[in-house]
Every structure is written in C-alpha cells, then in structure tokens.
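[Archive record]
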Amino acid sequence: MDYSKTLNLPKTSFPMKANLRSLEPEILDFWQNKEIYQKINSPERGPKYILHDGPPYANGKIHIGHALNKILKDIVIKYKALRGYSTPFIPGWDCHGLPVEIKLLEELKEKKDKVNQIEFRKKAKDFALKYVDIQRKDFIRLGVFADWENPYLTLDPEYEAKVLQLLADLVKGGYLYRGLKPVNWCLECATALAEAEVEYKDKVSDSIYVKFKLRDDLLEGEDVYIVVWTTTPWTLISNTALALHPDLDYLLVKSPQGNFIFLESLADNLKTKIFKGGFQVIRRIKGKELEKKRALHPFLERDSLIILADFVSSEEGSGCVHIAPGHGEEDFQVGKLYNLPVIMPVDERGYFQDCGDYSGLRVTEINSILIEKMRELGTLLLAEKITHSYPHCWRCKSPLIFRATEQWFLSLEAKNLRERVLKVIEEVNWVPPQGKERISSMVSLRPDWCLSRQRLWGVPVPALRCKDCGRVILEEAIIRKFSKIVEERGSDAWFEVEVEEITDPTFNCKCGSRNFEKEKDILDVWFESGASFYAVVKESKLLNFPSDLYLEGSDQHRGWFQVSLIPSVALEDKAPFRRVLTHGFVVDLEARKMSKSLGNIISPQQIIEKYGAEILRMWTVFSDYTRDVSLSEEILSQIVEAYRKIRNTLRFILANLYDFNFREDLLSYSKLLEVDRLFLSLTANLLSDVEAFYDSFLFYKVYQKIYEFCNITLSSFYLDILKDRLYTFQPASLERRSAQTSLYYIFNFLVKAIAPILSFTSEEAYAYFQEQNKKESVFLSIWPDYQEFKEPELESNFEKIFKLREEILKALEEKRGKGLIGSSLEAEVKIITTSENFDFLKEREDLLREFFIVSKVEVEKGESFSLKVERAKGKKCLRCWNWREDVGKDKNFEEVCLRCASVLRTQR
C-alpha cells in the first residue's frame, strides 16, 4: 500500500523558486493598479508620520548609494503604515546647480564661458527632467512607495517662487549681507563653493621657506630676516603682512646665512632643514614685541606689516605666517583688525591680472616661476615637495583656492543665529547619537553661508547694480515681485524682464540714480534644496511641519541637514525635523569607497537584473547601515541563501495550512497544546523585539532576529517536530489543528514583520494566506498584537526541557556515530530524574518524544539524573516511521502502528 497517499502532505501553489525578476514587475503593477500607496494614505487612516525626502541630483542614473538611501526610507514608511499611520512620502529632485551643469557641459563638450546662457538653461531643464524620469523608474523598480506622480522638483516654477520667498523672508529678517570675503573657489568650475561642496584629499604641494628682511634695525646695522613658511607660493603676490603669535618665544639667531627670527619651539626642525651649519642665539623675543614693525617683500617692492594672531601654529613651519587677506578666512579676519588691504589679482579661471610680469600666468603654473625668482634674488631658503590634506571640489575633483570676491552671505551671527541653531540641535533626536556632536562642531566652526554662485543654471539672485555708483541692491520688495513672475513663467524670466517690471516707479539708489542693471549671480543650489521644508513640507496639506524624520547619508551633516536647519531656525526658531537618521557609504570588502577609477562599482541595476530588487532590499539591512556598508558578490550570495531560507519557511507554513479554515478550525488559545503555546509565546516575544528594533531604526537586528527565527527556531526545531502531527494525525484532530493554529499566527507575524524589508515576497505570500479580516494588500492589513500569547512561566518551565534536549541530541549523535542508529526515530530515550523534576517530565513523556523526535521517551524516578539512549523496540511503522511495539496489532493494518491504523480506518 502507498501510505504517502494517506498522509496530510503539504500542498501549496506558492512557488519554491521566487523568480524575482518576473515576479517583482507583476507586484509593482498590482500596487499601481490597486492604488495601494493612495489607500495607505487615505483620509480615514490614523495619525501622520512624515519622512521628508532629501532630493538627489537629477544628473545621471541612480547608483548603489541612492538605492541604499531610498530603500531605508521605504522600510520606515512601510513599517509606519503597517502600524496604522498615514505616511505620505513626496519624493524630490535637485534639478539646478553645479552637478547638473557640469554633466550637461560634458555631454555638450562645451565650456561654461562659451555657451549661450538662455539656450543652455533650456537644455539643462530638459536634461534634468530626463534624469528625473530615469531615476523615478529605477526607484519604483526598487519597490519604493511614494507619490511618484507628484514629486517636488526644484526647477518647478512654484518651487522656485517659494525659494525666492524664503530669500525675501531672510532679507527682511536682516540675515543677508554682501561682502568681499575669501570663499572656496573652484578654478575649473569657475564658481564659489559652499562648505558642503568641499572634500579633502591628499595633494602634493610646493613647500618653501623664504626670508623677509626687516625694515627696522634690530642688530645695529646688520640685516635681520624673518623666516616664513608657505605651501602656496603663488599667494605671496597678495601678501600684505606677517603674523606672529603674541605670547610665544622667538629666537633672534646669527648663522652663516645671516641673522634670522623664528619660533623657538621649531628651532630643531629648522636647524635640520635650513641651518645645517648651526646658529648662535642672540636673544629671545616675544612675538608681541615685533608688532607693527615692517619687513620687505621677498620679490615685490612692497612692505609687509608684522601683526599678531593666536592661530599661528607652534607645531609646523617657522612660527611666522604669511598673510594674504584675499586668500584665506583667517587671513581675512585678522586683516580686518589691522585694516590690511585685500589684494585680489586672480580672476575666476585662476589667471593673474594687472601683475606686471606675472599677468596672464595661472595659479597652477606660477609657483615654479616665483620660486626661481626668489632663488635669483637670494630670498629663498628652501624649496621642497610635501603631501598634505587639501580642499578639492567635490564635483570636478580639482584642488580649490581661497579667493576674495564680492558675494551674498547669510550671516550666522545676525540675531544670534549660530547659537540658536546650536540650541535647536540639542532638541533633535540624532541617530546614531554621535551625529549631534558632529553637526554641532560643524555649525560652531562654519563661516557665514555664501549664497551666490557664478553659474548658468539655477534660480537667479534678483539683485540690481546701480550703473552710476556700482552699489548692488537686494531688496525684499523686489524679490517678492520677481517671485510672483517666477511662479507664472519660471526663473528664466530674469533674463527677459525689464528692471521696471520688478521695481516701483519711485525706486532709486542711495546715490539718487535710477539707472540699474540686473546682476548675474545664481543662488546656491544647497539653499534651494534646504528650502524644501518651506516650499514643500509647510505648503502641502498632506504633510506636517516639522517633519518626523530626515534620513540621509552621514555626509549631509555638513550638507542638507545644515542648509535645512539654518533657515528654519532663522524663520521658525525650530528645526525642520524631530529626528535625523544617517547611514554610511557603500564600500567594497576592502573598505574602499566604490568608484569608477577603482573598478569596484556594483550598480543597483546589475543586482536587480541578476537577482531581483528583493535581494538589494535585503542587503540594505544585512549589516549596521549607520556605518559604511560593504557590498560584494560574496555578500550577495550569502543574502540569496538567507532569502531562500526565509522564503522556504513561509512556503512550508503555507503548505501546511492548505486545509485550514480560520473560521472553523482556529482554536482558542486555551485549547492549544502546551508546546504550541510555548512557540507562540516565543513568537510574541520576537514580535515585541521586532517592534522595538523597527522603532529604533535597528533594521539589521530585525533581519538577524527574523532570519535566526526562521533558520533555527522554526526550520531546525519547531517545524521539524511538528511534521509528525501535521502529516500523520487525523486532519481535523485537536493535535493537528493546534499545530495549524500556531502556524497561522506565526505566519501572520512573519508575513508582516518582513513586509517593510522583503516587500515583494511579503505581498506575494500574503495573497496565499487566508487571514481574518483579509485586506487587499499586506500593507493595508492589521499589525499583529500577541501580548496575550506571552507566557513567561511556561518558557521558564521549558528551559529545563531545552537543556535536556541538548544533552539528548549529543547522545543521539554518539549512537549515530557508532552505527547503532540512523534516524533519530530509530531511538528511544530513558530519562532517570530526581523527584524534584519527575512529575513535570513524567506527564510530558509524549511531548518529550515529539520534542526530541524519537520513537519513545520513558521517565523514571531515581537518586540522580541520568539518561540512556537505546535502539527503539518494536517495528518501524511504514506510515509515520516511528518505531513502536504496537505495529501490526491491528490485523487490518499490519504494517502500521495503532495510531496510524485509527487514522486509516476513518479514511476507508
């Protein structure tokens, strides 16, 4: 007889093989056609949870960092939706500024100063919109829920108008000023850069020591020189002063090369490098004793004033710092104290102008010429090369210079703004916590925010220049008038409107002139993206201000978080976010950041094509994303295996619920077998853990717990011990329905707990699940509440059985190793225990048999604990495979045990 046909064997059409590449587009169509995102956010849903999207640049296909970011956001959104929140998520794109402009210029193979600005702006708009569409499709393919039909784009006229209104509010508040200050300047991009657009990497520079001859007589007719060190020889052309530390000791020494002054603490280093013949100390001098004296420039007919500054280093150089107020923030600030002239001979492309013999030379080529000049004049003491950390343009990767230009700045000191921002930072919840110190430090040290750029593409700064006196005016009323025009016609209108259209008839300059021209500066693109709290969150009826969460890469502590925070505090006196969550960068197995030059890039498109988006989603929670996240083919292979384990667990449960009707077969909790109650209690505990981890954004712990639950608790234990009951017992028996009831609740937990992460698989599996109050989508279903299932006392009682199981498994393995048994069902176990545990174990003999997956367990009382594993007596039942002494007792069914015979009798 074929007994397999008499078993309750698993049945399901839920496929073992996922075929994610074909499944996922079908699920995407289902979500779209059924408007699942819209239903999640219907008006009758619960309270709102607002995650505000930081806009990526619309200048190329999405990369793996984009995928990590958007999937993490999607996990938050979906978890909150499952917990009953309305979670409107409006995606955004940054469409203006340097990133788009550079990429388009590369495509056009043009230089910035060679293009027609109006024509270029039209092409830039088309370019940005093309990549918005490309990126949108990629994000949708990842399974990300969002209002994809109604994103916010920084090039939309309505958004541009709001950016200008924010600017007008800040002008009205007294936060803006125009000033000549050194700013980070990219020679290749020919524009000022914000702090967030600067990255530091190693650079080889010229390091020179030069001598400035003192005009004042310190040694009765003998020349005395000050030793000066610099790594930017080209800035010497703009030198106006030398800075010494007021309170440190300097040495006046006599050497074969002459008489010199330098910092005492650096004497040994200078002796090694320059004064190899030694020197004699004539006297010590405090830096402040030399204040206001003058020295002769090493190659120009100009004096340098000796000034004092606390920032002079005692750890490198000579302790005498060359000051060029046009080429450094500290130089500029100390220059204001001493009323030093700001000399700026370098144009936007880095060429020297109006500098006599040096005119027409570029910053990048002039060092060697100046070094040779000083060598000829005898003012060069040493020239060498050093490698040091140096600021570079984050976009074109070129080294930057500091260049004093007239720009528009947002003052961090106006109305005590810096201190107000620092105070608000303390009120925000930062995840991980060190983010608070990171951004506080950056805000404390950042200079005023340079808002103007010398670019082609972006929102113009609506400033006017008086043609008669040269004064530049940025007035609230003009900005507001222009913003209304922009709302209708877009920011290109700046190049079309006449001055009269944005000014009142009575408007005039302080000099009395009414003769104006429009300025050409463009607003910093960071100001535009930072304005999204004002232009999107505060404007949309779907959203709430402040947002509950901002979630971006850790580099945004110096970027989007700051540029959102500063104007929000200025105008609202509060942060635009309640909580900020940051993630790390994607790196390879050697912890190298992914880049084209290293050839270690793995694109999200590649992963989706090979494995499916689900594997990419699972990768985002594979490790702690608050640190740098590793990605490799080896890691993806591990994730594929882990995914299979979770999927197979879902499939096994579904397959064993094929004949389970929750309306008729679901047992009340009190009727469940003790072992089933135990595993429901463990599931309830896990549910609480999962909720806590989701709420704390510890997604990798959610993954670890669920994987461990599927792989160990279920597959290697509970599901294994249930097979006997599920397959061999009467279909509607209490024992089998108890197991199915437990599996029903476990599946209900699993399918929802994994939904934020494995969204496609969860939706697919949910379609096969017959749930009470079944919804159209798993994301519209009710999150489980299993508090009633928690039985700490039951778990405590079973601890002794778990420990006993470990010992029995070892004993079974020993017998298997000796060839005495094969399957564990070929064994029976005798447990001898003290009276303390005897009653507990004795009344659970059959449960222990199931727990240990053996054919028989006997419990006996003894003086001490011991256990004995023997080969089971009797015969093997050909239906349930247990070895039992009652096999053949039923003459109608001589090959099976009495338990199986009773089942077979009902099937006749």
Observations:
- The radius of gyration is 38 Å.
- The mean pLDDT is 92.
- DSSP finds 28 helices and 32 strands in the chain.
